[in-house]
User: Fold this.
Amino acid sequence: MAHLAQVPSPVGIFPQFFARSSETLVLKEKVLSLTGDDFHIKLANGTPILRVAGKVMSISGRKKVFDEQGNHIFDIVKEHFHIHTTFRVEDAHEKKIMEVKSSFKLMGSKATATFTSQSGKQEILTMRGNWFDTTADITDEAQGNAVVARIDRKLLSGKDIFFGQQTYAVTVAPGVDMALIAALCICLDEKNNEGGS
Assistant:
């Protein structure tokens, strides 16, 4: 994976997850998990970062995100009654901290994440690219469309298909919140799995 340049100012909410250098996250989805879709998010070197537990019977598809010490960081919840698929990310007190809206165009897909950074700045991250195929860039409009993350959905291993898992990599630029980028990717993956608009 290519290295990404440092962003002009930090982007994110959870300082403990800000990338110090260009980091590659590996997301592995357990498609056939009996408890819903569980993701294990690790750095490319194998260091665990986050654990995401899904609820299979939940109408909202609520996913709870924990750090490796078991602390509840945030939830991802699907909102209903929107024209475009919309997810909200809530903190541990169920307060909305980020919204992700997704729409599909003739030439690929587009998703927008809006939130307030730790610095108090309003952020708009836009994912453009072919989510169904292989790669997509996530850019920050407020910082001159700087690339803050790059998704590579090429399957890392053929055995992942056999065991009901999809594995893909996400490179995160220095100064960007890896937990929020992971949340955005999970929202896109949910959207992809359901195949809705």
